[in-house]
Amino acid sequence: MAENKILTSRRTLIAGSAATGLLAAIPSGAAAQGRLGLSSILGQATDNALDKLAQPGAFYNDEAIRIGLPIVGDLGGRAGGLLGSILGENSTAGVLGGITRSINDAAGVAAGEAKPIFRDAIDDLSFSDAPGIIREDDGGTQYLRQSSNDRLHERLEPLVDSALEELGVYSTFDGLAGQHSFIRDAGLNRQSINRSVTDQGLDGIFAYIGSEERNFRENPLRGLGSLLGN
């Protein structure tokens, strides 16, 4: 009788262990739902952010994300002061202001064309660590940036390049470089301008995506935030 009880206990233990292993191998409904919800929210947050930033003047009018003149090279911050003193001393609407506005407008144009790029990046995310990500109010945004920032930068650069060309930013800098050697010495050329604008533009885009994600989580009626248990 005792042997039967021991055998039964062993069988129960083995069966329980097997069931536990099987459950661990299969994502729970909540976890799978969380991954789906996170992907959906991040997609909607990205679309909303890019729509807002594509509006005329969006980058320039928001001081928190406004893109500044690219300053690189050994002159560092001094180049900004020199450029400002030479170009902007007459009025804030002078050449300096015009260049800054054009640079921000270029970022807005690029943002308006970037939806497919961000959607592709989101679709490629595994969300394997979604249970940890969903605890942060902008966890999806952080994860997207950590996982895809370099690829997004690489794909956004051509859009920024085209916009800078079309809006005359490059030709303006080329003309200024011909007149002022410090601009050339500071390394301000098409490549560095594009890189700087793309870097700053991505900062602004991710700031807006994070804000949109937080809004979705705080107000599930706006989207799929309820899938994350918020």
From TrEMBL:
Pfam families: DUF4197. PROSITE patterns: TAT. It comes from the Bacteria. This is DUF4197 domain-containing protein. It comes from Erythrobacter rubeus. The lineage of its organism: Bacteria, Pseudomonadati, Pseudomonadota, Alphaproteobacteria, Sphingomonadales.
